[in-house]
Amino acid sequence: MSAPxxxxxxxxxxxxxxxxxxxxxxxxxxxxxLFVGWFRMAERCSHxxxxxERAPGYFLGSTYxxxxxxxxxxxxxxxxxxxxxxxSNRQLTGPLxxxxxxxxxxxxxxxxxxxxxxxFHLDKSVFLDED
Length: 131
Ligand SMILES: [Zn+2]
Known about the structure:
By secondary structure, the protein is an all-alpha fold.
């Protein structure tokens, strides 16, 4: 049996959740910071005390966001640079490999924040969690 849905006033819109994710803020209250360092997440929201990692392995889903964005940008860049600008595969290999390594690192925090926003949008019971 699932938990009851929270009242509508407690449920932010998807736009609000994405806005909070882009600002790296708590999806529930929009106040607390998600990260205390570049790669280190806070355990809980400093404002509403929401526990960010809901279960072990919770953030594995964020790698799908990171992977999808990397693949889309890599594909568009390859097609534009190879077929549009006429650069050879040899010329493109180094820069595109560097992109594939660096971009997911740069996107790390936002992919986790977007994953939480998506999770909170799809599972509204998390707004009722007290622990
Ligand atoms: Zn919060």
